[in-house]
Amino acid sequence: MPSPRRNADGRPLAASASSTSSPGSPAHGGGGGGGRFEFLSLLGSRAPGADPTCARLRASESPVHRRGSFPLAGAGPSQAAPAPLPEEDRMDLNPSFLGIALRSLLAIDLWLSKKLGVCAGESSSWGSMRPLMKLLEISGHGIPWLLGTLYCLSRSDSWAGREVLMNLVFALLLDLLLVALIKGLVRRRRPAHNQMDMFVTLSVDKYSFPSGHATRAALVSRFILNHLVLAIPLRVLVVLWAFIVGFSRVMLGRHNVTDVAFGFFLGYTQYSIVDYCWLSPHNAPVLFVLWNQQ
What we know:
0% strand; globular; mainly alpha
């Protein structure tokens, strides 16, 4: 006959279970009153008015609370909500339409400028034309234009010629000042495929936006067309020279397309400023008297 199972005290398992179970419990063989009592007690412990300590413990064990997504209202300082991230560390998941348009324009500008830089180096597809492009670079440089205008002003013997040349000097100085100021503010680097072998560069010439050659070409061409009497073929050549100088800046890899486009616009606007502030013996007599004495 098999022996009954015994617990750790050496007593039979059935006896110990009968001695520890309360009357009326399912283990004692009583009816369903004990089971209903235990069921009601469990429901009472889960009711809204239950012990808050137990509720906090159950909430802290949930995976949602461990992730920190829904902090408790009655939590202590250790369970407080995390501080919001700084503005610069947040990810912008909804960029504006203007931002997307500007980034797309910048990408197209860089891609097109690299494609058009056919004379950027001797090994480029049009590398043999690089010396000609560098001659065009010198023809649009500010220093030759400024020195040449000052020389013509010193050799001029008419008041009308001096007036035009003096305003051209004023226009060239204004161009140099505005281009240097904008380059220092924007500080856009030159294209990566550019070779830094430019003619007489200054500190701000390491920046790209805007193109000083393009602004000067637009300014000088408009100045010449408005103050010199030229035949139609010569006027066409002046306009072509301005556009070729600007386009050569992209072919040499000196500038991006947007640098040249803004340079043309800036040079065209600068002439309007010079024409509005036109220097003459009536509004600037001191300059003409000093130059006449020299």
